[in-house]
Amino acid sequence: MLRSIIISMVCLFGVCLTVNAQIVISGNVRNSVTQEVVPVVSVTMKEAQNGDYTNDQGNFKFSTRKNYPVTLILSSVGFETKEIIISGPGFQRIELSPASVLGKEVVVSASRFVQKKIESPVTIERISSKDIINSPQPSYYNMLQGLKGVDVTTSSLLFTTITTRGFNTSGNTNFTQIVDGMDNQAPGLNFPIGAIIGLTELDVDNLEVLSGASSALYGSRGLNGTMVMTGKDPFKYQGLSAQITQGVNHVKKGKANDPLGPSPYYDWTVRWGKKVNDKFAFKINVQYTQAKDWMANDTTNTNGPGGPRQDPNYNGVNIYGSKTSVDINPFLEGALAQVPELEPIISPMLAEGRHMVARTGYPEYGYLSSDAKMFKANVELRYKIKPKLEAIVSGTYGQGNAVYSNDTRYALKDFHLGQYRAELKAEHWFVRAYTSRENSGRTIIAMPTAQLINEAWKPSYDGNTGDGWYPQYTSALLEAMSQGQSYIDASNLARTFADQGRPDAGSAQFLHLKDSISNIPTSKGGTLFTDKSRLFNAETQYNFTHLVKFAELIAGLNYRLYRLDSKGTLFPDNDSPIDVAEYSAYAHLTKKVIREKLSLAAAFRYDKNTLFAKPRITTRVSAVLEVNKESFIRFSYQNAYSFPSNIQSLQSTPVDYNSFASGGSDRLLNGVYQFNKYPAYTLESVDSFQRTKNPADLKQFALNDIKPQSVDAFELGYSSLIAGRVLIDVLGYYSTWKNFIGYVNVANTPGTADPNAFLDHGTYIQYNIAYNGAEKVNTYGYAASVSVDLSHHFLAKVNFSSDFLKNRNNSQVNNFNTPNYKFNVDFGNTGFGKKERFSFNTTFRYRPAYFYQIGFGSGTVPASAVIDAQVSYRLLQAHSTIKLGGVNLTNTYYRNGFGSPAIGGMYYVTFAYNVF
């Protein structure tokens, strides 16, 4: 009896062990052609949730309670999906066959769920981590200028602004950049700060660019488009990776007036991703970049024809300090009263009208630092509470020196921006909270700082002594003319005399004055703005598709708080920070009908901003028709609203000795500037009045409280994959803008409504103010792209796009800065030769000449044709790659923005370890 009981218990225990026992599936995955290990391969069990990703050595390992045999599904971008049956224990060695990726790309941003790119209801462009590896550009940000319909403005080496559909300017507040779910705008400035806070070079999984209005899903800032960047998941991308790029730019001193000689370029990036166990993983990213920046050196005279030796009122585009311009006639009249013998010289001059004379300015080189630096670091921790419930905590910090162009050139020195996130993410929902914290560092505003430097070493006019730069200039001018010199020759002699004692740029005296002035806040007479604004954001989203069944339904809520804190240097927040809150809710519904050949979708968004009384509703409807296999026609309509940014509403920043860049809120217009007491006149009419002395020439300009702008956008497109080898995409769009926000230049005389005050240069103030134009503005355009798989890993691409502005409001600076057409060509190979060790890529970008407007001026950007190329060699056993490349190979300097720097060639060598 006892023996039977023991035998029964042993059998039962054995059954329990069998039931609870887990089998371990492990193996290694390699490329069937090159025998390289293949990382980031998804290895999952068929009809089960168990699985793993291959690590940087190509290995995978996971356990399951299922019994043999089991079926594994292996998939990875660039390889054919493979199923294998595992009959028993043992280490598996598996090979995957390379395959074309054309037409197989998937995107998320277009509808907030996964879909094939060619089935997207709106135009979307995508860059993957493999594209970045094969690119000749040393920075993935610069790759964006090769995408269809994308415009960029390069303000400096580390500050590139991106947009679509034509509205292109440095510091674009209507283009949204989202990094791992976080809006990476600077909280006070409201535009993305170039690459300073973006993903590091090695941590980009993919980025997607939505062209045109995208407010329905991404909020009111997305009128010109949205870029969504996704970092690499440490559960998926594992191992230590490093990339070192050493290069040289400014290779020929003096070419295109480049004042610098050959200068080194350094970029070092490290990423470490580690899956500690099935529940916990982390990643650490660090990147440091240092180089000599491109310099803005356009010397074109903004005050008329002639250079500094031909025009006494010369003010170069990138010459700072010469914006101080005075009519010397009052000084001539004073000289005539003191020395009547000068009447034969002075009287004819007074009869001619005004004689405007500008102070001598400083070029950018020697004034603004050419040291471009960027450091950024990221840490992310992930913990799987359940297989499909993940907790994520991350922190990103960026610091650097860069320059951007707007109302003048702004040198961001020691700029800091941090973003910190906590998130819970499940299969059908997420909850995310993050904060962004900005510190403007020691930012230098180029124009007013230079003007104040001039006033510091010698005032334009000292009312107490009657002396100053202009009295000295006038005295020397008259003396030279009395000796028979022409007006121009006498003017040059007079400038030399008045400039005696002027410190040279870069001298000890100059640097002392610059540091002193730029360390005094704008609110106290200096040019330092101390912006420490913050952004707080909380959002949640739920995918109801598994509940409603009949359609794809996604809904979400978002709350955002801007805490503007500039101590009165950027906003009217002297007494306390200004809080601006935004509330929004959105929903997106997709339904397939007619045997799932037609996909219909609608999105709705509700937005409320506490600066404005009325909420706004944004809509998007779309239809995608599958014409035949791999061919789709898409149509979309979007009605998008955009609340004015904090800059467009509340900015009040000096950009000139007597002028401000200003928002259009009534809080400024009638509260701070008191336009209701001291009317605003157009700057053109003030200039006319100063010439004619006729008050009738003055034209008042009515400015009302700024309000949201809106756009109705239509798009029709067609995408098709032909024979698995040719991918085409064509589109056309038409948009109507209402209450379009542009800028106007006006002036008033604070403290007096007497128009004659405009005759005294020092008594009136100029403003570049954001306001709504009354006219409807239309934009339209078309684009096309063709990608051809030429087999054996050869791929050719070409894209063409064209954008136009109709009904331009000539009273506004509208920033529609794009050529009527542009095109890009790309040709490369991702693997050829023995074991496909070699690869190369070349790109060609062409832009014809086009007109460019920006706050401090406007003019023509010359045509440019730029060639970039790289060739790479892989060291298979060392898991490394050596790349030799160059951007702007011909070193033909070009600009892509008025007042922006001249961009020359850069040549580099890159060593990359374990980069995939």
From TrEMBL:
| Family to which the UniProt record says this protein belongs | Belongs to the TonB-dependent receptor family.
The Gene Ontology CC terms held by the record are: cell outer membrane
Bilayer topology term:
Multi-pass membrane protein
Domain TonB-dependent receptor plug residues, every copy:
117-226
Instruction: Give the signal sequence positions.
Output: 1-21
Highest taxon above the source species: Bacteria
Q: What is this protein called?
A: CarboxypepD_reg-like domain-containing protein
Q: SUPFAM superfamilies recorded for this chain?
A: Carboxypeptidase regulatory domain-like, Porins
Q: Name one GO biological process term.
A: siderophore transmembrane transport
The record's GO molecular-function terms, alphabetically, read: siderophore uptake transmembrane transporter activity
Q: Which UniProt keywords apply?
A: Cell outer membrane, Membrane, Signal, Transmembrane, Transmembrane beta strand, Transport
**Main localisation, per the record?**
membrane
Query: Which compartments is it annotated to reside in?
Result: Cell outer membrane
InterPro entries referenced in this protein's UniProt entry, alphabetically: Beta-barrel_TonB_sf, CarboxyPept-like_regulatory, Plug_dom, Plug_dom_sf, TonB-dep_rcpt-like
Which Pfam families does the entry mention? CarbopepD_reg_2, Plug
